[in-house]
Amino acid sequence: MTIPTDPSYGYTEMDSEDARAASRHYWDNEAPAYYAEHGEFLGDVDFCWCPEGLRESDVRLLGDVSGRVVLEIGCGGAQCARWLATQGATVIATDLSAGQLAQARRLNEDTGVPVPLVQADAITLPVRSESIDIACSAFGAVPFVADSLALMREAARVLRPGGRWIFSTTHPFVWCLPDAPDANGLVVFHSYFDRRAYTEHSAAGEPLYIEAHRTMGDRIREIVAAGLVLVDVIEPEWPEGHDQVWGQWGPLRGQFVPSTSIFVTAKPH
Ligand SMILES: C[S@@+](CC[C@H](N)C(=O)[O-])C[C@H]1O[C@@H](n2cnc3c(N)ncnc32)[C@H](O)[C@@H]1O
């Protein structure tokens, strides 16, 4: 069994500015490689919630989107937004990273399903209050912001009363486990209660990649503090026959513990 000891990463207190800078740097540089590795699995016009392969066309967590104004937060290549457009939604796709949005622009042309793309930090969306019917995010922004309460509040601000905000993110339990899809990833090695951000940094100590952590209780508390109602939490099980590994997500760990959580929330009328 290998417990990671690489000194180029660790756990640090992270403010919003540092997290934003690290994420922009990382996703701007990684966008082509990320698409090359995961693009086929995601589909250019498809809404995939997570590495377990849960697709919106099957689970319909957003409900009927036809005629709705839908905001995607942290859209990456905007695959989800493009699928939503084919279902009759009016979509706006937002992301922090110019590199990711360049992929999205290319896919807009290649697929012939163009969606509007806006560069924006999820915490300060250039969107009018109470103008959105449904906000959604598939692993966009939520794992990467230092202040996820601010993100919950921002999503609540843009939603009209009765609107829904639904997002997938890393399951909090994953925090305890090494970043490995094989048997090395099946040992609890880190405290679930350590809220410092996982950080990869340069030799000069600059943060190059960050992922923030919240416990399950923290997530629920932040949703409630933002004035939203928690409707459901989905912990997708690993499907039989699905053998594609994505980072530390894979069929072995998937037999034992969840790696994704999807929060379904609503803004009260
Ligand atoms: C794992 S990708 C997910 C994108 C897409 N849903 C997918 O499945 O490929 C995470 C995305 O979140 C974006 N992101 C990270 N921090 C963000 C922030 N503060 N505001 C908006 N987007 C952010 C990144 O640029 C990246 O495109």
Provide a concise account of the structure shown.
The chain contains 7 helices and 10 strands. By secondary structure, it is α/β, with parallel strands linked by helices. The protein has a 7-stranded mixed sheet with strand order 4-3-2-5-6-10-9, sandwiched between helices. A 3-stranded antiparallel sheet has the order 1-7-8.
Q: So, the CATH homologous superfamily? A: Vaccinia Virus protein VP39
Q: For the record, what CATH class applies?
A: Alpha Beta
The first-to-last residue Cα distance is 52 Å
Shape: globular
- Percent helix, as a range, is 25-40%
Overall number of domains: 1
Quaternary structure annotation? single chain
How much of the sequence lies in strands comes to 15-25%
Order of helices and strands: EHHEHEHEEHEEEHEHE
What Rg, in angstroms, do the CA atoms define? Answer: 18 Å
Mean pLDDT: 95
Question: Count the helices. How many?
Answer: 7
**CATH architecture type:** 3-Layer(aba) Sandwich
Q: Output the strand order for the largest sheet.
A: 4-3-2-5-6-10-9
- Structure class: alpha/beta
Cofactors and ligands: S-adenosylmethionine
In terms of per-residue confidence, which ranges show pLDDT below 50 for 5 or more consecutive residues?
none
How many strand elements? 10
Keywords: Methyltransferase, Transferase
Protein name: Methyltransferase domain-containing protein
GO molecular function: S-adenosylmethionine-dependent methyltransferase activity
Pfam family, one: Methyltransf_11
